[in-house]
Amino acid sequence: MTRVLIIDDHDIVRRGLRQVFSDEFSELEIGEAENSRVALELVTTQDWDIVLLDINIPGRNGLDVLSEIKRLRPRTPVLVVSAYPEEEFAIRSLKLGASGYLNKSSASDEVVAAARKAMAGGKYVTALLAEKLAATLGSDLQQAPHESLSNRELQVLRMVATGQTIKGIAGELALSEKTVGTYRLRIAKKLGLNSNVELTRYAMQHRLVE
């Protein structure tokens, strides 16, 4: 019996992935979670052969959820399947322990191939990601400014870029408004920007938000 946990807030995506795996595995059990709370509850209380995780889910940031899953279940492979481009989030995901990163536009056979490799203990790397990884080995590589942000800073940047207020961000992340304000100032300094308008424009230009 292959047990697959799908974490995504869009029902149509979960149904699509459920169908892909149902077509490939004769003995299959699928769990579903549409937010971080349910996802971590299922990871904590049950064993899974593989977890498919979207980065943009309600509650805790998907990267935080990935980190927590690997802390709770270090041997459980996690395949990130997201609408965000590989060049912006794939390496971050791999550093946090993901077994692979796929864009949601990937063909179903590629999703299955990635899942099988991850369940076998390997890492699934697309051609685009392989190029990105190779490029990071170059000593003269010019990284984009946001690549210096921590995962939390990146999360706050994305939330600011979607129009959320400091108060709203603080409530969602269970942080003080002062702490969120400090994150925002730190982000602005690292990116060399000042206003929320500039931060939003930067996030959109680099496809950090949908």
> Which strand-content bin applies to the residues?
5-15%
Number of helices: 10
How many β-strand runs?
5
Distance between the termini: 36 Å
CATH architecture type of the largest domain: 3-Layer(aba) Sandwich
Q: Unreliable segments (pLDDT under 50, ≥5 consecutive)?
A: none
**Over all CA atoms, what is the radius of gyration?**
18 Å
- The CATH class name of the largest domain reads Alpha Beta
**Which superfamily, in CATH terms, is the homologous superfamily of the largest domain?**
Response regulator
Count of spatially separate domains:
2
Task: Give the averaged pLDDT, no decimals.
Answer: 90
Widest sheet: strand ordering: 2-1-3-4-5
Helix and strand composition category: alpha/beta
User: In one word, what is the shape?
Assistant: globular
Main β-sheet, in a few words? 5 strands, parallel
What is the H-and-E element order?
A: EHEHEHEHEHHHHHH
CATH topology tier name of the largest domain: Rossmann fold
Helix content: 40-55%
